[in-house]
Design brief:
single chain, alpha/beta, Rossmann fold, 5-stranded parallel beta sheet, two-stranded antiparallel sheet, 8 helices, 53% helix, nucleotide-binding, metal-binding, ATP-binding
Length: 178
C-alpha cells in the first residue's frame, strides 16, 4: 500500500468525471474519497437544486466554500471531487492550492455535454439553451482551471486511462509514494 502525502482536489467542468474518476482513484490508492456536492447536501439537509431554488447561487457557493475548507484542513490526505464552480471562487481556490494538489480534469465541450445531458440535475443548465450555456461556462472557466497544479485529459478513454495518467504524475512529484 502506498502513501498519499497531500489531498488531491479534482477540479473542472460538470461532466468532466471528477466524481467517477475520483472514486476509482481513491479506491486504487486505498484512501478516502469525498464528493464536495454530497458533503454540501449533507451539511445543508437539502439537494443542490433545492439550495439553488430556495437561496440562490451565492448561498450555495458560501456553503461550498465552508465545506471544502473543512475537508481540506480537517481530514487526512484524500481524494476530493469539487463542484464545477468551486475553483472559480478565489478564496476557495487559494485554500485548495494551500492544502491540496489541484488536478484539472479537462474535457472538450462535446464530451461534457454528452455526459451532463443524461441527467437533469444541473441547476446552471436549466436554460433554454443548455449546450450554449455549457459552452459559455467552459469558455469563462478554462483560464481559471488552467491554474491547477496538474492537468489531465478526461476524454472518452476509459477512466482507468485518466487514473493511470494521474498516478504517473503524482508518483513523479512525490504526492503518491508507491
Amino acid at each position: 500500500m502506498g502513501q498519499l502525502t497531500k489531498t488531491i482536489a479534482l477540479v473542472g467542468m460538470m461532466g468532466a468525471g471528477k466524481s467517477s474518476i475520483g472514486r476509482r482513484l481513491a479506491a486504487h490508492m486505498g484512501v478516502d474519497f469525498f464528493d464536495a456536492d454530497n458533503e454540501i447536501e449533507a451539511a445543508a439537509g437539502q439537494r443542490i437544486p433545492e439550495i439553488f431554488a430556495a437561496y440562490g447561487e451565492a448561498a450555495f457557493r458560501d456553503c461550498e466554500r465552508k465545506v471544502i475548507c473543512r475537508l481540506v484542513t480537517e481530514k487526512p490526505p484524500h481524494i476530493l471531487a469539487t463542484g464545477g464552480g468551486a475553483f472559480m471562487a478565489a478564496d476557495t481556490r487559494e485554500r485548495l492550492k494551500a492544502h491540496a494538489v489541484t488536478v484539472w480534469l479537462k474535457a472538450p465541450l462535446d464530451i461534457l455535454f454528452a455526459r451532463v445531458k443524461r441527467k437533469g440535475n444541473r441547476p446552471l443548465l436549466k436554460t433554454a439553451d443548455p449546450r450554449g450555456t455549457l459552452e459559455r461556462l467552459l469558455a469563462e472557466r478554462e483560464p481559471t482551471y488552467a491554474l491547477a497544479d496538474i492537468t489531465v485529459e478526461s476524454d472518452n478513454a476509459p477512466h482507468e486511462i485518466a487514473i493511470e495518467r494521474m498516478m504517473t504524475t503524482l508518483t513523479k512529484t512525490g504526492i503518491w509514494i508507491p
